[in-house]
Amino acid sequence: MSLTDEEVVTPLIKEYTPPLTLKQRISRSIYGDPPQSLKQRFKLFVSGKAGLLALYLILVILIGTGNRVTFKLMQFALTNYSYFVSQLTTFIYVPVSFAIIWFKFSFTNDITPEMTKFPKYRFAVMGLLDSLQGLLITVGGNYVPGIMQSLLLQGSVPMTMLCSILILRPKGCLKCQKLFNILESERVRYKLGSTLPATCTDSKCLARISVDGREILGWQSLNEKNPADLSLFYAKASLHSASDVQVVTSARPWGTHLKTFYSLTQYIGAAVILAGLVVSVWPALSDSGGGQFQWDLIFFAATIPTALSAVYKEIAFREIEDMDVWYLNGWVALYQFYFGLFYAPLAAVMSDLAIRDIPSNLWNGFLCFLLSSNFITPDDGCSAGMFIKKNRQNA
Q: How many CB atoms within 10 Å of residue 284?
């Protein structure tokens, strides 16, 4: 019995597989055949880098949440000793970090000679900023509800964006900046262009100036100690104020910088965070509840040193390829604790405490932490004791 044309063609159509695209062929050559079932896809996700990143993300969320909750509980337990809490939470990092640093120095090669040559004064700057941040959070946090603390700390995102925009804009080399100062002092109107991504070097400045389309000053002149062309430039630029003056340096113009440093989506995200903060603190502003606004403001002010510290780290670590996290945390914590001692008068003012009472407050805070002994009021919630729980009123 002969088959009809339809019976012959139908199986061929079912067996036909369209040719792979170029992208599919490249992907298959690198990663192999794609998994067919949902179970295979999940197994590949869990076993690959994506699964590891997802696990890290979950751990960061859980640890961060636990950190905020336990921090607020500690503030409840040590209400009268905000400065002690600030110093204690810093000091704990010092012995732990340096013990691990010693182990790494003794038994591993994780800490390289390049890391040890990193200037210590930069760790000191980071510690100075981080210490101020910790002080503002601990003092202000006593009077800010836990939920509000989490919301206010989100302000570090737009604050960091603002500081990075202002500080990290390419400003050109020292000769470029000197040229800008000269132009401003001479009140010369000019249009600014950029040589980026090409940047100046120690031996070559890329700046150049053109008047009416004719270049009168280039990097050859700027590299000299006393450029002869500057007098000619002053004459032309000042006598012919309507001239078309073009200045090109390795600095980035503000307009271009704002458009390219962050994307539109990132700007919108920062605006949403700021809008949420305004809604959150509005009850305090309108005196309709929500806590005292001045304490919200002090707590939010901690985002300023946080942002400055992040930007400074971005600048400081450009000169080194890698930095061991324990080596970094150990030195920063040491300087943070050291500078925290000099913040004691500020802590006293914010805590309504006499400066002369700071040493005794630190000691009593230690007793409160260790023994649950409260020397201020008998029912003030000193419940942080590690060994003995008792309340004792100061005579």
A: 19
**Residue whose C-alpha is closest to residue 330's, from 77, 115, 137:** 115
Tell which residue, 119, 120, 101, has the closest CA to residue 327: 101
At a CB cut-off of 8 Å and minimum separation 6, what does 370 contact?
385, 386, 387
Structure tokens of 206?
Answer: 């890329």
**Please, which residues have CB within 8 angstroms of residue 118's CB and are 6 or more apart in sequence?**
320, 323
Read off the amino acid at residue 300: F
Helix axes 49-77, 38-47, angle to 10 degrees: 60
Q: How far apart are CA 299 and CA 146, in angstroms?
A: 11
The helix or strand, by DSSP H or E, that contains position 340, with its residue range, turns out to be helix 325-342
Blockwise average pLDDT, block size 10, the chain, 395 residues: 53 54 56 58 65 82 84 78 87 93 92 91 95 89 82 90 92 82 76 83 78 66 50 54 74 87 92 88 64 82 93 89 91 94 87 84 83 52 46 38
Report the 10 Å Cβ neighbour count for 336: 28
What's the CA gap between 261 and 55, in Å, rounded? 30
Q: What are phi and psi of 123, to 5 degrees?
A: -60, -35
Residue 97 identity (one-letter amino acid):
S
Q: In terms of pTM, does the model score above 0.90?
A: no
From the list 165, 148, 163, the residue with the least C-alpha distance to 297 is 148
Cα separation of 336 and 270, whole Å? 29
Which residues are within 8 A (CB) of 245 and not within 5 positions of it... i.e. 6 or more apart?
188, 189, 190, 191, 209, 210, 211, 237
Tell me which residue has tokens 């002080």.
135
- DSSP 3-state of 192: strand
User: Whole-angstrom Cα distance, residue 167 to residue 122?
Assistant: 17
For residue 202, which phi and psi values (nearest 5 degrees)?
A: -65, -30
Q: In the structure encoding, which two tokens stand for residue 284, read together?
A: 């305090």
